[in-house]
Amino acid sequence: MRRAPALPFLLVTVFLDMLGLGLIVPILPALMTTVTGDAGTAVLWSGLLGSTYGLLQFVVSPLLGRLSDRYGRRPVLLASLTCLGADWLAHATASGPWTLLVFHALAGACAGTYTVVNAYIADVTAPESRARAYGLLGAAFGLGFVAGPTIGGLLGAVDVRLPFFAAAALSLANVAYGWFVLPESRPGDRTTPLSLRMANPVGSLAAVLRRPVLGRLAYARFCADVARMTQQSVWAFFLTYRFAWDSTHVGVVMAAGALGGAAFQAWAVGPVVRRFGDKRAAVTGSLAGAASLLGTAFVAVPWLLYVLLVVGVLGSVAGAATQSWISRGVADHEQGTVQGALTGLGAVAEAVVPVAAGAAFGWLLAYGSPGLVFVGAAACAALSALLLAGTPDLRPVALGSSGRGHQR
Fold first, then answer.
1. What backbone phi and psi angles, to 5 degrees, belong to 246?
2. Could you give all domains of the chain from N- to C-terminal order, each with its CATH number?
3. What does each of the 408 residues of the chain score in pLDDT, given as a tens digit?
4. Which H, E and C letters describe 35-71, residue by residue?
5. Residue 358: exposed, middle, or buried by beta-carbon count in 10 A (0-12, 13-18, 19+)?
6. Which residues lie below 8 Å from residue 171, measured CB to CB, with a gap of 6+?
7. N or C end: fewer C-beta atoms under 10 angstroms in the chain?
8. 66: Cβ–Cβ under 8 A, 6 or more apart, which residues?
9. Residue 248, C-beta contacts closer than 8 angstroms, at least 6 positions apart
10. DSSP reduced 3-state for 245
């Protein structure tokens, strides 16, 4: 099969993934209240579903990445999308919370979309073109984030379960599209062992972190994830507190920022990284992100907030550049394994940071200084930049090697 349709399919996959998630965000509380019978129980079950999903994603992602190295990217990706569609269909039809828990747990265990997509891009793009491809991926993510809640709110006004039927239909249609269109990027290597050490989250992370260069990049990406998740968790609450904005105003500003970020990643990331290289683009972008977060902590007037949003959009080059840098340092037959380990590490941030950031914000709010949460986020982004700046370039060396000769 031809490889030409691969990148468009991957972009559509990520867009639909995020669109499907966004569809249900504004209506999930109403559905959970309908299923459980009261709002208090709905909150508890929603938290349990989210935690179960994140835990199983952390546990299983390394295995899915390893399976994609051994058997190919295509079957793992299509299986992940099928599980996601089944999960949304369960949300649309379930009459009790236990059904939702079982299917959401299955979706978490099969949540290999981003693991496989990142590995797939490394398979089908030349190293000098990967930052552009990862930038386009970020743009697709952002567009789905903008479109999903809007469409979900409109559909939810018709029927509380309609957005879940729509999300399921999008996921399963994407499976059918991929079945007929998506080529295999690499046929797999049956000699790739499925050892317990490399297929469990602790062992796979240890194998990545032991690498002197790849390990530093993994730590840098984790710090960036912590900064990003902190901002996402408390940003709307902070704007409501600082400027007394209503939810509509906050939503419009968030949508504008997401659209700006999507446009920048789609059209500017590739040329910027080609001009400056992965390392300099990643370091500069991380510093821009840190500056944006630090400024947000003390912003006093709305116009300055908009300036800081633009700086943050420029800083989004760091994610694509770092991902490109990581992919260049991994042997072809282990792209899935490494991406799975990194997905698991990201799942830790997604599970822990929102709770910690929310608690810190609430505590600081009592003292009239909630913006200090952004100081902590800025420190994480600055630490990410420091780790990137101190990391030498690398060349592909298989996991499990002695570690010598990784650095140029």
1. -85, 175
2. 1-182 (1.20.1250.20), 207-398 (1.20.1250.20)
3. 344 458 888 998 898 888 877 777 677 778 888 888 887 788 778 778 877 888 888 888 989 998 999 899 999 999 999 998 998 899 889 888 898 889 888 888 888 888 999 999 999 999 989 999 999 999 999 898 888 888 887 888 888 889 889 989 988 998 998 898 888 998 877 777 777 666 788 888 898 999 989 999 999 999 999 999 999 888 888 988 999 988 778 878 888 888 999 999 999 999 999 999 999 999 999 999 999 999 999 999 999 999 999 999 999 999 999 999 999 989 888 899 999 999 999 988 888 888 889 889 989 998 999 999 999 999 999 999 999 999 997 655 556 544 433 333
4. HHCCHHHHHHHHHHHHHHHHHHHHHHHHHHHHHHHHH
5. middle
6. 16, 17, 20, 81, 82, 84, 85, 88
7. C
8. 192, 194, 198, 199, 204, 336, 337, 340
9. none
10. coil
- Give the residue among 163, 181, 184, 148 at the shortest CA–CA distance from 68: 184
Q: Which two tokens stand for residue 234?
A: 């408390």
| C-alpha–C-alpha distance, residues 326 and 95, integer Å | 44
Say which residue the tokens 């290597």 belong to.
189
Structure tokens at 378: 């800025």
